[in-house]
């Protein structure tokens, strides 16, 4: 066997092993629990900005007599 043929066979063997492992996920890598993707501080800030801006818009509209 030449070096390139041995190398090719080794690569094919490694590839075949990866194919049999596809879709198999260990349980340690899966997330369990109900963690939020954002922290509570960031979520609170977002709610503050959204509600604050809507209240500001309502007050501004009411002060101008209902016409924007």
UniProtKB/TrEMBL annotation:
One of its GO terms (cellular component) is endoplasmic reticulum membrane. It holds the Pfam family RAMP4. One of its GO terms (biological process) is endoplasmic reticulum unfolded protein response. It is a single-pass membrane protein. It is found in: Endoplasmic reticulum membrane. Its main location: endoplasmic reticulum. Keywords: Endoplasmic reticulum, Membrane, Transmembrane, Transmembrane helix. The chain crosses the membrane at residues 41-59. Belongs to the RAMP4 family. This is Stress-associated endoplasmic reticulum protein. It comes from Gossypium raimondii. The lineage of its organism: Eukaryota, Viridiplantae, Streptophyta, Embryophyta, Tracheophyta.
């Amino acid at each position: 066997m030449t070096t390139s043929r041995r190398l090719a066979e080794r690569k094919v063997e490694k590839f075949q092993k990866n194919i049999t492992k596809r879709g198999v996920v260990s349980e340690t890598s899966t997330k369990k629990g109900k963690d939020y993707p954002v922290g509570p501080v960031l979520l609170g800030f977002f709610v503050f900005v959204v509600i604050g801006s809507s209240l500001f818009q309502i007050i501004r509209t009411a002060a101008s007599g209902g016409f924007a």
